[in-house]
Amino acid sequence: MKLTRQQHLLYDIIISTLAFTAVILVIIDLSDELNAWQIRLDQFILMIFTLDYLVRFIVAGNRRKFIRNNICDLIAIIPLNTVFRSFKILRTPVLRLLKLPRLFAFLYRP
Question: What angle do CA 108, 37, 22 make, to 5 degrees?
Answer without folding.
Answer: 10
